[in-house]
Design a protein that fits this description.
3 domains; four-stranded antiparallel β-sheet
Length: 397
Amino acid sequence: NNTTLNLCLSPSPKFLNDETSCPKRVLRTRAQLTAALGGLKLSIDSLTGLIDAGSTAALLNIIATQSGGNVKNALLAASPYLTDDVLLAYLATNPANGHLQQILLANSPLSDAVAAYLAGMTLPKGIKNQITNAQTGESAMELLQQEISVYQSELQRTENDLIRDLLFDEVTSDGFALVEDYLLQQPTKTNEQEQLLALVRIANEDVSGAQQQLDVLDNNPVNTKFCKLNNVVVDYMPTPERENTLLSDSTQAQLVEQVADATPLCQSSANAQALLENVGIRNPYDEVIEIVAPQPNSGARYGLIDETNETNATAKASFVELFPNPANEQLTIAHNLEVKNGTVSLQVMDLMGRVLLNKTINNATNQININTLASGLYFYNVLQNGNVVESGKLVVE
């Protein structure tokens, strides 16, 4: 845990302990990593271009301005990869029953939102039965999104390897500058890259640059906890005795505690807890391996004839179990999280919050190889459809 304290509060921070926390361990060359990133981005762009034929706005405009036959032809041409936004906009125009039948069958099984809207419409019994009978299995859109998710996970893993390679560059002693340059060169940055840019500037003692980046991030509500925690860190960076300052400033300490105790848990919550432990405000908490928490009702697919599915469904407790912890070569994670409309994934982060491992775990029981992780303390997130449902600590021996 001292690594987090040194990173955030020491006069001359060290990014991570090379031998115990985050060794380079990158097997591909920088050129190979860069080429791989380019190929993965092209693959993702190609797949995402199938969704709504590459332009949701264009299809919505066609729905709003053109006649029924033209709309049907345009939507069929973009099927089976129509989004809910397009399908719901189309249903709202009360299209001809035959056209509606063709579009919905081409994009079945439908999402719960589209099926629920359709259930309120008056349709001939025969058409309604055909659509209902098509609500089985996984839709082409779901399979496409899962494929995109796999590529995105590989893209993130490859980018993490490239950043580690830059950070531990053997030619220059300023790996932070190389990472910052890489991030600044990205034409469009993800929110995770924007956060990493702030963290790199904090680690490099760039107070003004870090504050500027936090101000940018603060415009997005999803970054509220991240900014609240790291604004405290930036405020204390110029002070000589940072640990004592945090201990003596109850207002700032309370802000950190708010992040640590916030729900749902996220990486910033884990980082805030670690910071409080390191300065002695809190005692280390016991690791909880099995978590039981209520999840939103996933239910079965919405029935278009039997409209009791939704009312009869009840929320069930879901669990996530990660073991052994401490772990060595392999980690097992079991869960019963719903994966119908997306994916469940495991992220393992270092103390800096950088993702070192990102694995899809859609199966009920998953074996994860962790032999690329050095011995030490890590944080993990379990995500359901991109949302963090559980966070914790992982010790690798």
